[in-house]
Design brief:
Layout (H helix, E strand, L loop, with lengths): L1 H65 L11 E7 L11 E9 L1 E2 L2 E2 L4 E9 L6 E7 L6 E8 L6 E4 L5 E2 L6 E9 L15 E9 L2
Antiparallel strand pairs: 1-2, 2-10, 3-4, 5-8, 5-9, 5-11, 6-7, 6-10
């Protein structure tokens, strides 16, 4: 009888231990799912924050650098305008000044990757009877050939010189030399006193289509 009681006691103890274990396991199983959804949301949000900029930058790099053979072509040129010798302090019949003009398709950044056309613009006040003559360097070094000229007047204060030769190619270093001769001709009978005038020379560059 004593052995049966002991066996029954052991069985009840095992049942109690099993029940406790099942309760403990059940409590853990219940608690873990309650923590998992917020954790999953948090991880997903963090990954989203990390992944989105990476994808965005990757697309930017792919389009702008790695997969791009399109570049902005260099529109390079250099213009130099310098007077030759001393300029007259005052102008009168017989006075003359010469300006050297150099136009090139190169700059410190290199040779232009686009072809260009240009024009030479002369702006005056129209106050003095000055004649402006543009000459270009001929095939013979040191010799010059007249392109065109105009007589300054109140009606013609600005003149634009442009020819078919005023073209700079792409990719090939090229420079053009000109001289602008400004003169007050001797046979001019007009002798204004205390009259102010000016000469402004512009070289207007434009990319050729």
């Amino acid at each position: 009888m004593i052995k049966n009681n002991n066996n029954n006691h052991k069985k009840r103890k095992l049942r109690l231990d099993a029940a406790r274990l099942s309760q403990l396991s059940l409590s853990r199983i219940i608690r873990l799912p309650s923590l998992t959804p917020p954790l999953m949301v948090l991880l997903s949000f963090m990954l989203l924050l990390v992944a989105l900029p990476t994808d965005t930058y990757a697309k930017y790099i792919l389009l702008a650098v790695e997969d791009s053979h399109m570049k902005v072509a260099g529109f390079e040129h250099k213009v130099s305008i310098c007077p030759e010798g001393e300029l007259p302090e005052t102008w009168a019949p017989g006075s003359q000044a010469i300006y050297s003009i150099l136009v090139s398709n190169q700059s410190t950044n290199g040779i232009s990757q686009t072809s260009q056309t240009y024009s030479i613009e002369v702006v005056t006040a129209g106050a003095l009877p000055l004649r402006c003559t543009l000459l270009e360097e001929s095939e013979w070094e040191g010799s010059w050939k007249e392109i065109a000229s105009f007589q300054e007047s109140p009606q013609e204060k600005t003149h634009i010189f442009q020819t078919d030769k005023m073209l700079l190619p792409e990719g090939c270093p090229t420079e053009h030399k000109y001289q602008l001769m400004v003169s007050w001709e001797d046979d001019c009978q007009w002798e204004p006193m205390d009259t102010e005038d000016f000469i402004r020379i512009n070289v207007n560059m434009e990319q050729k289509d």
